[in-house]
Description:
Blueprint: H1 2-30, H2 35-51, H3 56-67, H4 78-83, H5 93-123
Amino acid sequence: MGYRLLADVTAVVHFLFVAYVVVGGFIAWRWPRTIWLHLLAFGWGFSTVLFGFECPLTDLENWARHRAGEAGLPSSGFIDHYITGVLYPRSALEEVRIVVVICVAVSWVGLYLLSRRRAATQRS
């Protein structure tokens, strides 16, 4: 029971991390200092896709599922198992990746513009 709960909590944390990679820049519009955390999260998420790094959350979930007597995630990983083919069709993977990068870029540009406006307001 404990290992199953750990695996499920890990999956929820993993979903939250993936969501933060996509929208964390918009969160930084409200709390600008969080941009550094978002840069790290995006860098890690982008690296796992670009270079195929293993995610420690996937490893933790697999370990807990095996300890609970369950099958782990397929070798394709968390996103392929829980998101691709579930939230969007597999055939749209490249388009979704492009949309994610656009969302992140828009959030960063927006944050830059907001910070310039705030700085100009403070100088006035």
